[in-house]
Specification:
The structure is a single chain. This protein has 367 residues and is α/β, with parallel strands linked by helices. 33% of the residues lie in helices and 20% in strands. The chain contains eleven helices and eleven strands. The strands form two sheets. A seven-stranded parallel sheet has the order 3-2-1-4-5-6-11, with helices on both faces. A four-stranded mixed sheet has the order 8-7-9-10. Strand 2, helix 2 and strand 3 form a beta-alpha-beta unit. The longest helix has 22 residues. The protein is globular, with a radius of gyration of 20 Å. The two termini are 24 Å apart.
Length: 367
């Protein structure tokens, strides 16, 4: 089949893991496809994806071949596929806007961005680059808190006539005004805020659903996360966290038997630990009451490499988005959004979202 042509904004750790994975699975078959939720989606395999355009603002990446740039600082995710070929796609300078947090200038070059001195492109420049590349889908991997920059690139996707996958907690797909813009242009959109393959949110949701199904009253819970990548460094600026906290908290609240009062639920990033690099450590505590009003609690520690955890979902989201393009389906893709994202336009349980997504893939749902 023809390759699915993607463009990427923000060539960080998540993009690195995704592009490594596309090459990694070229040497695999369906029986060796460890780490994938789906080997085949509508005839598209994991390696049937090709990056054709990319944007970043770091001078160590701008102008470089993307398959080389994914290993440049401040990227620090584990390298699981080293023999990347030349992609023959140079990273273009992007728009900065609020895609860069000022406090990160206080850290050394290995940890943070080094802004390129290249002239920022206009919207017309970016739309032209997207069109000329033949991209079909734009993936948003900007840092958390990039509200203005995300809206800018979403508008560029609309103008270029391509689909949009919003992997960060800025509300585009879940904003009715933006959703209507993509619907009117008959362009698919999946969002918002990617839900890792087996991360803090999906684990917390699963446990919350278990409490509900087993008749245990959940009284209070927290989720604390630490990490050492630029995502956690960026989030030290708490002003950038508003949408992130809403997204993560609502992902758990939506599956509870009864919503908790704000004082009884705390979900969100905790701190930046440089030596953890791309390893994310999550601490979950849940307190409740079971038969006879007896108290109980559960504590869990989860350690995962953050960016491959995201890429395992993105590789499916891309292929579902391509199916929508092939089938002439525009607007919100409700089923994939509910399964792949923390803050979709409509929340469903993960069992429901899994079933709905498989029905979408099989062509039984038009969403």
């Amino acid at each position: 089949m023809e390759k699915i042509r993607i463009a990427i904004v923000g060539v960080g750790n998540c993009a690195s893991s995704l592009l490594q994975g596309i090459e990694y699975y070229k040497d695999k078959n369906s029986e060796e496809s460890v780490g994938l939720m789906h080997w085949d989606i509508g005839g598209y395999k994991p390696f049937d994806i090709k990056v054709v355009s990319a944007f970043d603002i770091d001078r160590r990446k701008v102008g470089e071949d993307i398959f080389k740039a994914i290993f440049a600082p401040p990227n620090c995710t584990t390298i699981f596929y080293q023999n990347m070929p030349e992609a023959k796609v140079k990273i273009r300078m992007g728009r900065v806007l609020d895609g860069f947090s000022e406090h990160m200038k206080d850290f050394n070059d290995e940890c943070t961005f080094v802004l390129s001195d290249e002239k920022e492109p206009s919207a017309e420049d970016i739309v032209g680059a997207l069109r000329n590349s033949g991209a079909e889908i734009l993936l948003n991997y900007l840092p958390v808190g990039s509200e203005l920059a995300t809206r800018f690139y979403a508008e560029c996707a609309l103008e270029a006539g391509i689909a949009f996958i919003n992997n960060i907690p800025v509300f585009i797909a879940s904003n009715p005004e933006w959703a209507e813009k993509f619907k009117s242009k008959k362009l698919p959109i999946i969002g918002d805020d990617i839900k890792a393959q087996l991360g803090a949110t999906i684990t917390h949701r699963t446990l919350a659903d278990l409490f509900k199904k087993r008749g245990v009253k959940l009284e209070r819970t927290y989720q604390l996360n630490t990490g050492g990548n630029t995502d956690f460094l960026n989030m030290l600026d708490r002003s950038r966290l508003a949408s992130k906290k809403v997204s993560k908290t609502e992902a758990v609240q939506s599956v509870l038997a009864k919503r908790l009062e704000n004082e009884n639920i705390h979900i969100g990033p905790s701190d930046y630990v440089p030596w953890q690099k791309d390893n994310k450590v999550c601490f979950i505590r849940m307190e409740g009451r079971l038969f006879g009003d007896m108290p109980m609690n559960i504590e869990l520690r989860l350690s995962v490499e953050d960016s491959p955890n995201s890429a395992g979902v993105a590789i499916d989201a891309i292929r579902c988005c391509k199916l929508a393009l092939d089938r002439g389906i525009g607007g919100i893709l409700y089923s994939p959004s509910a399964y792949f994202m923390k803050h979709p336009p409509r929340q469903f349980t993960d069992d429901e979202a899994y079933r709905m997504t498989d029905e979408f893939i099989a062509g039984k749902r038009k969403d």
